Amino acid sequence: MVLVFDLDDTLYEEITFVKSGFKAVANYLAPLLNCPAEELFIQLVNRLEAGGRGSIFNDVLQMHGKNSKQLVTKCLAIYRLHPPEISLYPDAIRCLERFRHYPLYLVTDGNKLVQQNKVTALHVPDKVKKVFITHRYGIKNAKPSVYCFELISKLEKTEPAHIVYVGDNPSKDFVGLKPHGFKTIRIMRGNYSHLQPGGAYEADRNIYTLDELTEDFLKNL
Q1: What InterPro entries has UniProt attached to this entry (predicted)?
Q2: In the chain, where are the structural domains located?
């Protein structure tokens, strides 16, 4: 059996990356806005909680009378390129250790540099055979595309029925895989834990912690 994991909200909590990025941006802006970094960080988090991620930097800069396209672009670059202060979920550490003798892979969508920085900070390459950041292969090969999973199938010389994907987002993680025979497991946490799409979009099984993922569980999948 081959185990493939998603990254965000599966192996670590994504909001910790967001807050790490806000901290880096706040430290940069503090002298420019003549405002303590701690206060700017709180403003960024409050704006996130109030209205999502769309225009957070614009809004906070506007509060300080410093909104400009150039400064927003700089904030975005700092956010995306900073070395994040993040760590694996405790159950992810236990799971990766428990299955260390299995072929383990990671498949994740998103900005190539951002995802690589996350992977590096979490020391994921030390724990899996290969990391697939889908955007390296073109956006068309991001989930729900099965492209990277078919690469894993070829690498392992095995059929999709012997490959299990663990992810959290039912809107894209499983719908492309199931028709090809891949096994799917949804972990019910993170930003998408409330979604109940049903049918083709749901995984074969749901779990609430990676501690539920055992050899016996896989045998009965």
Answers
A1: HAD-like_hydrolase, HAD-like_sf, HAD_sf
A2: 2-13+87-220, 15-81
Nearest C-alpha neighbor of 92 from the set 195, 174, 3, 2: 3
Q: What is the CATH number of domain 2-13+87-220?
A: 3.40.50.1000
Q: Is residue 48 within 8 Å of 18, Cβ to Cβ? A: yes
DSSP string, 118-175: HHHHTTGGGTSSEEEEGGGG-GGGSTT--HHHHHHHHHHT--GGGEEEEES-TTTSST
Query: What's the length of the chain?
Result: 221
Gap between the Cα atoms of 120 and 126, Å rounded: 9
Q: What is the pLDDT along the chain (221 residues), one digit of tens a residue?
A: 999 999 999 999 999 999 999 999 999 999 999 999 999 999 999 999 998 677 999 999 999 999 999 999 999 999 999 999 999 999 999 999 999 999 999 999 999 999 999 999 999 999 999 999 999 999 999 999 999 999 999 999 999 999 999 999 999 999 999 999 999 999 999 999 999 988 899 999 999 999 999 999 999 99
